[in-house]
Amino acid sequence: DGGITQSPKYLFRKEGQNVTLSCEQNLNHDAMYWYRQDPGQGLRLIYYSQIVNDFQKGDIAEGYSVSREKKESFPLTVTSAQKNPTAFYLCATLGGSGRYSTDTQYFGPGTRLTVL
Amino acid sequence: GQQVMQIPQYQHVQEGEDFTTYCNSSTTLSNIQWYKQRPGGHPVFLIQLVKSGEVKKQKRLTFQFGEAKKNSSLHITATQTTDVGTYFCAGRRMDSSYKLIFGSGTRLLVRP
User: Fold this and answer.
1) Is the Cβ pair B105, A1 closer than 8 Å?
2) Which of A66, A93, B45, B68 could make an S-S bridge to A47, C-beta 3.0–4.6 Å?
3) Shortest Cα distance from A26 to chain B (angstroms)?
4) pLDDT confidence bin for A1, thresholds 50/70/90
């Protein structure tokens, strides 16, 4: 929200192709997250990163990969191994930095991925 | 694993009626947060509750955190069409994990 950019808003890909979703933030927040949302369902955590060059698997990491080379960027790759990739993907940060971290999650506008 | 259950799944009310959604965790939470997602949008933070038995109000919205820090509720008085959306609770575990556990959400529809 505000300082989190996700692109593109809508993405279409053919089955079997890898696709990378972009997430950039200028909030200077340390922690970043990727969630997946399916119609009528809540948010499921894919991956999260507490600091640069470090990330952990969430609850549904299979078929996804991430990198965190810069504090501002946390791209998500949906690989061909992901059995049902069509969904709404949300990137988020955790408010604050270092000792001033808060518990609030700030969400980007999301990317709707459709695999044909 | 730890779960956060949220009910009802959806509710359709007449404008002016009240609305309540409930959130229940299988384990004690460090805190609980509430988010609102408008149709086609992304979740937006509403409030955080930390203390046992805490009650907070935002205009027509009242949030409660249970005494055992395992359940929470959001009550909207006299709903308006602008209240339409999905309301999610999200709990943080006591081990100070960086992970939030989201409820499945309650979708609110308001008839004008």
Assistant:
1) no
2) A66
3) 18
4) very low
The reply to whether B59 touches chain A by the CB within 8 Å rule is no
Are B98 and A109 a contacting pair at CB < 8 A?
no
What is the number of other CB atoms lying within 10 angstroms of the CB of residue B60?
14
Locus of tokens 């996804």: A64
Query: Which residues are CB-contacts of B109 (< 8 A; sequence separation ≥ 6)?
Result: B10, B11, B12, B13, B84
pLDDT digits (tens, 9 = 90+) for B10-52: 999 999 999 999 999 998 999 999 999 999 899 999 999 999 9
* CA B63 to centroid of chain Cα atoms: 8
Q: Which residues pair with B51 in a beta bridge?
A: none
Across chain B, which distance is largest between two alpha carbons, in Å? 44
